[in-house]
Amino acid sequence: MVKPKTPDQIYGETSGGGPSNLILEYFFEAKSDLKDFFGTGIRILDIGCGQGFACDILKNMFKEKIFLVACDVSEASIQKIKSKNCADDVFKCDVSTERIPYNENTFDIVLLFDILEHISNPYFAVNEAKRICNYGGKMFISIPDEKQQFGYRANNHAFVYPGLFKIENFVIFLKQMYLNIKLYKEFLNTKTHHIDYNNASNKVNPIHHAFLCENSPANYDILDVVNLNLTLEELCYPNNEI
Q: Would 1 be classed as within a structural domain?
């Protein structure tokens, strides 16, 4: 009989760069003022850092200007980050059940790249991310498309709550968490291509969905959040702020 794998085995095998490089590249291109936000002393937390690909990118871009903290549930990932010395602090944490060991309003930016679909309590995790993120701070969030293969094999995603990660449902979830969606992007694959979600002529299923959110109440009527007749575009940008 095959023994079930431990979290360290699962996430040690599957933790990778994911779409973090493309997401960061696209957000910096699409939001010309975003790089200016990364001023001296900016504090960033990478939740579910994996092997540290996002940490590598940000440290290379901004060097000593930023204070970068990384956390992961996998001890293998923690040791990898320490060996690469790509974060100013690193700690092990299961954000589904454990409080992040930092005070409220500590960080200016929080990264949640391909982490929420794996955990048993995404509500708790996002609440914790909001707690330690400054009011008006930025949250970079990505999830794989719901059509990704399920399971704990390499390069697969284990959706604990598949229904939540149907993209329209996930947008509603973010808004119910009082996150202000500033930018939304679909990525065709994790290597080279990205596409606009509202391009009706594009019939290729996306691989990842990425959101740039602000930790502040959005300018929308809460009743619109649960209006399932709205299009995805209307859900993301209720005031036509595309």
A: no
* Domain annotation covers residue 122: yes
CA gyration radius for the chain? 17
The answer to the question of residue 145 being in a domain is yes
Contacts of 241 (CB under 8 A, 6+ apart): none
Pairing of strands 107-113, 42-47: parallel
Residue 83 has a CB neighbour count (10 Å cut-off) of 9
How far is residue 137's CA from residue 55's CA, in Å, rounded to a whole number? 18
Find the CATH number of the domain harbouring 54: 3.40.50.150
> C-alpha dihedral over 119, 168, 114, 192, to 10 degrees?
160
CA angle (236 as vertex; 233, 237 as ends), nearest 5: 80
Please give the pLDDT value at position 29. 81
For residue 175, give its domain range. 7-236
Domain count, the chain: 1
Residues in the chain with pLDDT values less than 50: 1-2, 4-5, 7-17, 190-203, 222-229, 242
> How far is the C-alpha of 236 from the C-alpha of 197, rounded, in Å?
11
* Geometric angle at alpha carbon 10, from 117 and 27, rounded to 5°: 45
